[in-house]
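Late entry, evening session. Most of the bench is empty. Finally got around to the prediction I had been postponing all week. Sequence below, unchanged from the version circulated by S.P.
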Amino acid sequence: MTNIAHVSQMMRDASRLLSDIADKLDAIDTGQADVAAAQPTPKRKRAVYSDDFESFWHAYPTDQIMSKKEAARAWQSLTPEERLNASRACTAFRSYCQSNPTYRPVHACRFLSQRRFEGFASAPNGHIRPPPDWLSPEHQEQWIQSEQRRIANG
């Protein structure tokens, strides 16, 4: 392509672009612009969760990346008795997380779906609950230490 042909093609492209812009400006001036583009998108409805799930969610040590929706789905798959046990386990799990700052709490949906709450079921006073098998050896040792502190503090 010669230089003259190349410059000529660029001028035609620029002319088309300017024509498109002029058409859009005319549409705005005459009020014929795309009305749908000017309307805001509708707001999403907030999900409504059961009171028992809300109680669990507030007791569980959540962080900003945990999905409440996923946890609610896992909650729905539990029996009423399992839900009660999971809620009761939150206190011990939160205490364990606070006493072991290197342990990052597992996502609430996995705590429920993998039944990890069973490892935090309450034990009779004076008895050490065995550490859950899914904890690393280091965290199992920390578990035992926190259990010993729990017993010592009554």
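Two things to note before I forget:
Residues 51-153 form one domain.
The mean pLDDT is 79.
Will write this up properly tomorrow.
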